[in-house]
Amino acid sequence: MAESEDSAVTLGELSRHIKSLSGEVHAVRDKLDNLTSWRDVQRVEEGLRAKHDADIAAVNLQVSALTARLQVLEDWQKWFQRIVIGAVVLAILGVVIATKSGAM
Questions:
Q1: What is the DSSP-derived secondary structure letter of residue 14?
Q2: pLDDT tens digits for range 39-88
Q3: Which strand (E) or helix (H) includes residue 43?
Q4: End-to-end distance of the chain based on CA atoms, in angstroms?
Q5: N or C: which end of the chain has fewer CB within 10 A?
Q6: Using the 8-state DSSP alphabet, how is residue 35 labeled?
Q7: What does the mean pLDDT of the chain come to?
Q8: What is the dihedral of CA 56, 57, 59, 64, to 10 degrees?
Q9: Are 78 and 86 contacting, i.e. CB atoms less than 8 angstroms apart?
């Protein structure tokens, strides 16, 4: 059987092709190793969800503290207004009584 020149493959050519394919396989394996797995995505999502929930809890705590402080200020203002109005009413009442009794 006589081999034609087109189908003849030398050992060097075969070695170069195998080396080239091996390099491509290694490149594809490296790319696959560097891909993010679904578990990694889920772990990151769970971490972000936990951080978000913690942030929301901290904000709610701050809002509760500020609401309590605001309530204290509103209560103080309400009592201050009552005291001032009471003092004004007493002063007017004192003036009325003093003028009716002739002290002024």
A1: H
A2: 888 999 999 999 999 999 999 999 999 999 999 999 999 999 999 999 99
A3: helix 38-101
A4: 146
A5: N
A6: S
A7: 88
A8: 140
A9: no
4 SS3 class: coil
| Whole-angstrom distance, CA of residue 90 vs CA of residue 84 | 10
Q: What is the DSSP letter of 102?
A: T
**Cβ contacts of 95 within 8 Å, gap of 6 or more:** 104
- Cα 61 to Cα 54, 55, 86, 99: the distances in Å are 10, 10, 37, 57
SS3 49: helix
74 vs 36: CA distance, rounded Å: 54
Instruction: Determine the distance from the C-alpha atom of residue 103 to the mean position of all C-alpha atoms in its chain, rounded to a whole number.
Output: 71
At residue 25, what is the residue type? V
Residue 33 identity: D
Burial class (CB in 10 A: 0-12, 13-18, 19+), 24: exposed
Predicted TM-score (pTM) of this structure: 0.48
Q: How far apart are CA 96 and CA 33, in angstroms?
A: 94
